From TrEMBL, chain A:
This is Protein FYV10. Involved in the proteasome-dependent degradation of fructose-1,6-bisphosphatase. Keywords: Cytoplasm, Metal-binding, Zinc, Zinc-finger. It comes from the Eukaryota. A zinc finger (RING-Gid-type) spans 355-416. GO terms for molecular function: ubiquitin protein ligase activity; zinc ion binding. Residues 355-416 form the RING-Gid-type domain. PANTHER family: E3 UBIQUITIN-PROTEIN TRANSFERASE MAEA, MACROPHAGE ERYTHROBLAST ATTACHER-RELATED.
From TrEMBL, chain B:
This is GID complex catalytic subunit 2. It comes from Periconia digitata. The keyword Nuclease does not apply. Belongs to the RMD5/GID2 family. The keyword Cytoplasm applies. Residues 383-424 form the RING-Gid-type domain.
Amino acid sequence: MAELTTTKLNAESHLILDQPLLRMPYELSRRNQKTAQRYIENSTKDVLSNLTAAVKASTKSASPDATLASLDSIITKMQGLKRKMENLHEEEMRIHKSNRARLEHLQDLYEVQSLVDVKYDEWSRVRLSRLLVDYLLREGYSESAAHLAASQEIQDLVDVDAFVACHKIERSLREEKSTTLALNWCKENAKELKKHGNHLEFDLRLQQYIELVRQGHEKGIDGDIDMYGDGVDGISLGSSRAGGGEQKLMEARIHAKRYLSGSEDFKLLGRAAGLLAYKPWDQVEPYASLYSPTRWTSLATLFLKTHHTLYSLPPRPLLHIALSAGLSALKTPSCHSAYAASSGNLALSSTTSVCPICSTELNDLARNVPYALHTKSIVEADPVVLPNGRVYGKERLKGFNEGLGTEKGWVRDPVEGLGGERWRESLVRKVFIM
Amino acid sequence: MTPQPPTSSSSTSGMHELLEQLETLEKTANLRSSIDDVQNAIDLLTTARANLAAEPQSAPLTLAKLQDPLKRNLEQAQKDLKPIYSGLNKYGKALDKKFKDKPLPSASNDALSSHPQLINRAIAMHLLRGGEFAVASTFVQEASRNPPHPEPTPSTPNPALEDSWEKELAEDALNSEKLQEQFEEMYHILDELRKKKNLAPAIAWARQRSDVLEARGSNLEFELCRLQFACYYVGHRPPSDDVMEDSDANSDSTAPGPMEAWAYARREFTTFQRRYSREVRQLMGAMAYWSNITESPYSRYFYNDYAWEDVATSFTREFCSLLGLSADSPLYIAATAGAIALPHLLKLQSIMEKTRTEWTTQNELPVEIPLPPSYHFHSIFVCPVSKEQSTDKNPPVMMPCGHVIATESLQRLSKGGRFKCPYCPGESHPREAVKVFL
């Protein structure tokens, strides 16, 4: 019964890998619309209050020039708004265009009925290119990704720009140890993050606090300095005030009060407070791990995770998911066997197709995955066995020996070819495999 | 046979519903109207400004009169965003519905994250064999600049241990310009074959490897030469074949094609006499039909549209096997098989979650994946007694009667003494059973 259904293509259930393909443009459209809304709201507030002010000023007999100037500034603002909206509109239409291409690409699959149809083959090759671009983007190989997308003409089906933006932020955390870009991103996505109950922003603020404390300790406490002096301007991570350590520690306290006190993780807050007493070089846990530079790596990872959740992207590359399943579905005990198989073998390619798991590309990769379950033997028609125990389909054995030019009445083993033994045809016997 | 339900009737099938929603967004529910509102507001403002410039004394009144319309316009701009909002909402709901029963596969059986070098190698080779040389070189450069970070997985908890040899392997493949040169040669030959109908480079390639190809029982060289013979016969000459041009021009023979073919056969076919004497005789027999070859029994050798594609395919296959590679990209076959397998694996996963069972056989998938026959590369032996697949440790053995069972089943049945075959009356002793290889 299984054989009957093996070539039938059920497009509906075949789309498991393709949800992210449609999620991304949808999420991008929503963000685009939200941005537009924010622009209009802000400009409305701004422009109307400007106008009110201008009305007031004009009744108090402001100079005509001043009135004109204030009106001009309002016009400039509105033109600025229009320009921004035009850009968003362009972006909106670009997203829709790419979304349409994606929907049509998926619709194509519904037109194919069989897995052995050439059309399915073509479709599946496009899918592989998509999966490869997705993998390259996730691994940060954006040049290769863009190059492949262009060469296969599938730019509308992949999200190069979104990933490039995402990796820029990730790298700023991992390599530059800077929170600026990531915090901007949090601000842009504040509403969604709150809905997901995400703590990325808190962790970023905590890191800022840790860095302030670190700087404070590193500068050291040089004499009596007025702890309540001026210059406490919130977060100024980059500023290198030569004001000694207390200044930084003070900044850190204010920063903590402003950004961290809302948390209910009192244990963590307690530890954070403890940092003020322990120096980065004290090697005392749990403070040492808070000071650890590996926190930046985890922040980068947390950012990626948050980003992918927000855009409904799976945590692992889709290529991994497809390949893991595919390697297992194809793998047989023969693929890593010490004995040469009678079919699918490299030496035999003139008579059978080479098994992809046995091919150099995937053989090592498939070593750790389980092999496919089979409940019935799959053998060639009319199996016969050679005196050395090797089993072949009768027709294929005959065809091979004809190609090899084996003398009449004799047979050779395809795996061994011309270099191997030859036997009388009468020694080949029928074998029964149930 | 149950009747097939009509495919287009339900809007849930396919992407129709989503496409409809998208059309609304493209055509009407977009930022255009809000932009028009903003433009209206700008027009209002510029008109007011012109009035103001002309009559400065009217300023308080003009400005005051401007307030309400401007506010209305801006509010309209905000209101005009609503259709986008609701359009996207509808679209989002349709999207949720479409994928409701298709959860994203979890990476629970991820065996690959710990081997990124191997994946990179597979990708580089996939690109090369696909003829994407420029992309491959971009990728090789980028990947060697930023080598990937292996992550631990259940099967490889400490990838760093294996990292070094994998890295060597990968660098071997990545930096091997040799592989690229080889595939470039392959594409050059294929290009000549398919586009220019020029067999010369392919024949030269096959001739150089005559011994290897013959030992493998490959017919490639003969197939290529036979096609060349057919080309001469019907008067199609390879583009570079200038030598014959002159003799052709002043030849008054009624059948220059067959004569050239004859000459070609005498020059080239001697090496094929041993293996292909019958085929060569057949081709020579075709000489008799030079005047009406299309109606002769030989027409299939001469007017075969598929001949070119066939030799191109066999050439690709032989070329790749000599490199130790399968003819079609393994990455392609594996990814496709994966997509076919995923629905089955997901179903299994949800059943296991419901019944709180665990997958006990780590070496074997717990569910059978129905793949099209072209995805079966090796023969599979499943012991009819134990229903287990044979492995190196438990290989199939054949009893004297010709029936095959697994070694372990044989041991269990015989308990060391004579026993009856479970499928026929034949009786035998375990030491009479011979190991077979499928």
